Fold this protein.
Amino acid sequence: MSTLLCLIGIALAALALVGVGVPAYLLCVAGFALCVIGGLARARLSVAIAGMVFTIFAFAIAPDGFTAVLQMMDVNPKRFFKFYDGMSGFVGSLVVLALTLVMIRRHAPQSYETMLGASDDFDKVVVGAGKLASWLFIPTMFVIFYDVSQRKMLDFDNNIIDSAFYFDSTKLQELEWHLHSVLFLLCLGFAYRYDAHVRIELVRDRMAQRSRVWMELVGIVFFLLTYCYLIVEFGWVFANNSYKIGEVSAAQTGLSHRWIIKAMLPFGFALLFTAGLSAAFRCVVYLFGPTYLNERAGDYAGTHHADLPEDVAVKGPITD
């Protein structure tokens, strides 16, 4: 029942974005309250966190959301966002963090198991999106193959231009980088979850296990999550402005609906943010939780790559 309350809260925030005749700020406030109540009632932690973040996001971007509240308070929205946009986002993040900590404590004495459960849920979303996006490799290769083949065929017979098999090369080339961009962006979180990114092994693999986890946690909190938040915020404005003006390709024969590809930027970094949050939970459990959970939570405690320094490869990494 408690998880259902969170789902209802998410649905209300979605209705606020769509617009149903009810002021968005009322729907978002009601949705946030339901997510908080559900979380405090021991709902699934991942759903409660997702609900709080989504309702705040809807409140911030809906035309009759936060902007409407500022206008009712006789505050100039443009002036407010110019000076306090970053501060308002920081305050919202602290509120979600504080409520999340309270919800975790409500799950005691299984608080750490609850955090790992939430991490597993976030991983399923990130990995699922990455696996689904990976199938874009097939149409990407097909488009590239057809584009190159078509240009070679035109060297022998220009009559193909008048056939049903001819597609403008500009459209094909733009479709190539559109598909490649979506593939890359939607797999960012997947790559982080499976540690497929570059690390500075020369330093990291010589550190003790707990030191590696501390480094991971500090990097996530102060760099990864912060950077993802900024990209999602500005990326949304980037895509929304493109949608409002009906932006199309700068090329005369290019693709239309440029906002679709631009919307993949905030969506992809939202998935990376989710992967970072999942990793942060695992790091906290490893550092502060019971030792019997170390094996399950220690994804970021060990070495990950084959090209280890010679002394580490022979003697093993430094241990605590």
Remarks:
- The CA atoms of residues 213 and 283 lie 6 Å apart.
- The radius of gyration is 24 Å.
- The chain is about 75% helix and 0% strand.
- The longest helix spans residues 209-244.
